[in-house]
Structure formats: structure tokens, C-alpha cells
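Thread amino acids onto this structure.
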């Protein structure tokens, strides 16, 4: 079954696939996809290979039509959190921006990540 993001939002929530032995709480992760014009965001159910269990999983995607001479930048933000935290509140604290030169930035709460079109980057805490 294919599904689009809830309320046309650009984020999804999922359980962590595994946990470190020392972690006391179960972990989850938010996948936030930078919203763009003429972009489709959604999920499709697929089956994993037998070597990792063969279970049905939901794969998240973001797709857009590429046009000659028009650069397109995708930004994906993974935000881990403890099970029980308010995922909607956490997702609302993620903001992304791509400017006309292709410079990208993401703000995740008080953390800011900037990636310039030349590949240089900066993290501010």
C-alpha cells in the first residue's frame, strides 16, 4: 500500500531498527524531507531480503522531475529521539532552507547545519 505523508507534511516517524546494549529507552527516528515545489513525498510498502528477516517495511521517498539546466537539492534530516517524546513537537523544530545558489541549511532545535554549494559545511551548537 502506498501512502502519502500525513497532512501533506514532509516528515515520517519510525522505530529504530536496533538499539545499543547500554540504551535504557527504546529509540525512534524522525525522517524530515525538505519540501520543494513539484515534489512528491510518500511511502511504499516493500518486502526486505531474507538476510535481514524478509519482513514487510515502509520505504519513504521524495521524488521530483529533473529539468535540464535546473539544479535541484534534496535535504533529508534524521532526528533520533526516545520513545514517548512528542514526535510532532520535535518535527516542528526542524526547519530547512535552500537558497538560489544551492546553499542548504537545516535547523534542528538549537543545532544549525549549513552546507555550501561548494561542499564546505559548518555546524553550530
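Threaded sequence (125 positions):
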Amino acid at each position: 500500500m502506498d501512502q502519502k505523508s500525513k497532512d501533506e507534511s514532509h516528515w515520517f516517524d519510525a522505530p529504530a531498527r536496533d538499539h545499543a546494549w547500554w540504551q535504557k529507552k527504546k529509540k525512534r527516528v524522525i525522517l524530515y524531507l525538505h519540501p520543494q515545489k513539484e515534489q512528491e513525498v510518500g511511502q511504499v510498502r516493500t518486502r526486505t531480503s531474507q538476510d535481514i528477516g524478509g519482513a514487510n517495511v515502509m520505504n519513504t521517498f521524495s521524488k521530483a522531475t529533473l529539468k535540464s539546466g535546473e539544479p535541484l537539492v534534496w535535504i533529508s534530516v534524521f532526528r533520533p529521539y526516545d520513545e514517548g517524546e512528542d514526535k510532532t513537537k520535535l518535527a516542528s523544530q526542524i526547519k530547512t532552507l535552500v537558497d538560489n545558489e544551492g546553499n542548504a541549511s537545516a535547523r534542528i532545535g538549537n543545532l544549525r547545519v549549513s552546507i555550501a554549494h561548494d561542499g564546505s559545511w559548518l555546524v553550530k551548537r
